[in-house]
User: What shape does this take?
Amino acid sequence: MSRESNVVYVGTKPPMDYVLGIITGFSGSNVKEVTVKARGQAISTAVDAVEITRHRFMEGLGVGKIIIGTEEMPPREGEGRSRMVSTIQITLTRK
Assistant: This one.
């Protein structure tokens, strides 16, 4: 979980680590939605974590909305120009 309320940022860890974050996000009695955010190669891990959570652990969850986009990242050391990286935000809602 992040400092932002009910947002899980996905990185390089295995999907089950993020499944735990999603379940923890819904642990409050009045929590209705949790947002999963990822970019670049972590997008597939985010989708895996969402699907594992929905189908194995919390069957009353639905996908509220999915937002896709692109961010411009600064150039890495030795590169001459900035690069574009895909992003995704998946909002899960409790039915």
Q: What stands out?
A: The chain has one domain: 7-94. The beta strands are 7-9, 33-39, 61-73, 83-94.
